[in-house]
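Memo to structure team: turn this sequence into structure tokens by end of day. - J.P.
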Amino acid sequence: MYGILVLWGVVTVVFLLFNILPGDASRMLMGQRTDISSINAVKKELGLDKPPIIQYLGFLNDISPVSVHDYSNKNSYWYFDRKKYPGAKIIFRAGKRVVVLKPPYLRRSYQSRREVSAILAEAFPKTLLLASASILLAMIAGIVLGIAAALKKDTLLDKTLLVFSSLGMSVPSFFAAILVAWVFAWLLGKYTGLPMIGSLYSVDDYTGEVYINLKNLILPALTLGIRPLAIVISLMRSALLDVLSKDYIRTAYAKGLKPVRVIVFHALRNALNPVITAITGWFASLMAGAVFVEYVFDWKGIGVVIVDALEKYDLPVLMGSVLFIAVILIITNIFVDIVYAMLDPRVRLS
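Reply from structure team:
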């Protein structure tokens, strides 16, 4: 229920934000030289001629899986059009009104006239792959390096990792993307063989065949994973040092258990709680934070879709992308709570 309230708040803010922006969406869609009658026709089609409160309620009606529509009047703003809502099912009818169960409708792009849900469905797997690769790199390398820093406290290795962690948390993603692309694809390109730009799919210049090119994933994933990697190293080090100072760890050593067994089976599990929370939380943030990285490396995911929509003033795509990312954040936070309760029984008791 809390997630639903948060999502409703996001929907409201997004609607208000994009409806007070300067510019006429209908004129953007038809061009600056079009006539007034065409502009008015487009406004009527998109519902832009309605009062803001009616537009807001219509927007809520479209994105809600359960919505209310007018079943009889085709000219009504609330008319139930089966072409507009494919797969919808009428679950209740009262006179001219019907209650419909349907997938959320994110409307159509002003520019391409494609459904926003189809645009996002095409771009999302690429962003998901990029975020998953980045968080996997951060998780594995961060936990290993964090453990090494904790076990080698105050040594050169520990101090080096602390400096890297501080730098990694400080560098903005767009600057890191430009720096990584310049170093590994421009200066060292003949040694690394890595391209500066490229998406998941590449096209053969001779045959025209489309194939998956995972080499293009390396630099964007490395760039996007720098900040979560730095955070995981710092958290893992701090959490493990705190756990190793506990009485039950000293008791385990006193019983004659081997250091490896004490660290793996006693210390590491308790030290992983804040790290797991950070990793799962960062996964959702990477979905939103991939905008700059995708744009620099031309990785055609949701980030590129958002930038293109901003340039073209394509409001439905912008609003749909923001809401899509908000849903992912909410679902991920719920998942974090479940995982945290599984790892720490004290959370279930509270």
